[in-house]
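Collaborator request log, item 7. Partner lab (contact: R.S.) asked for a structural prediction of F-box associated domain-containing protein to inform their binding assays.
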Amino acid sequence: MDIVPLLFAETVFGLLPSVKLLRDTSALSGCWADATDTYVSKMSLFQIDISATTTKKGQHCCEITQWSDAFKANRITVDQFLKLNRKYVRVASVTYKKEWKYRFESDLQYVPLEVIIDKLIPFTAEHFCGNPTTLAFDMAHDAPLYTALMQNLASLPQIQSLRFATLPGQYTHTFLLQKLRKQHLKELILEGNWTNDFTLALPKTIESGRLKELILYRSNLTVTKKMVKTVVNKWKESGGKEKLLLYGSTSCSGSDLNAILECSEIEVEINEDDYSRVLKLDNAPYQLFVEMWKMDGKSTCRVETKKT
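Returned to partner:
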């Protein structure tokens, strides 16, 4: 193969924020298409999972999964990961877990804390790709590892999906509010306790067009009438082209949802505990399903677009 096209592919494609941009090579031909195919075949996506708990002093469990272009999974060690050719490394997700369940002790890889903070996290931040990009914190506290992850990874502009669980610290609170107000964020899952600042900020973020999926799971935050109205209006304004999801506990009643949806063409199914409506627009790729149901005395609401 001609070395010039390959060097070009390694240099230019290595700067692309999205792995998906490499999948379509139909516009290329000859040696340029071959060079792109070679680059893609060598490149791998990585999923990194780190445990917050440890059974060995000064060490944490860390698991790195390598996904090839053929979507084959392979586990590698941190040492192997750090020695990889950086041209072909893209990190798709990092999860900070509370603990590993249902795993044998012999399957777990323990890594010194200083190696994770000083080597793994900076390397990961350097190679976080744009799509998909997920950062999940199954717990939050002020431990050095959590702080290092937040400071190095959470503020990256290419982060599109965030998940936070349990009571966040002040750093998380301030950071996430800034992220919602200023940066591109497609998906957000919030668990645990959050301040009223987020009740005010979330509808504005949805309205801006940035946030496409919001899940409030076992959270003190609830789906409000304003959130539902914002999602419905966003879907209408797009002509049914927006793909949206809103889910969580709610204080909304069936009459509240009726008031929001009263001007829409609808199919209705209502009983004492459950509420279901389907909104349609002519020639729209997505219908909008608005559902509410009760379980254990609590109401849950889901507003979701589905293919027509």
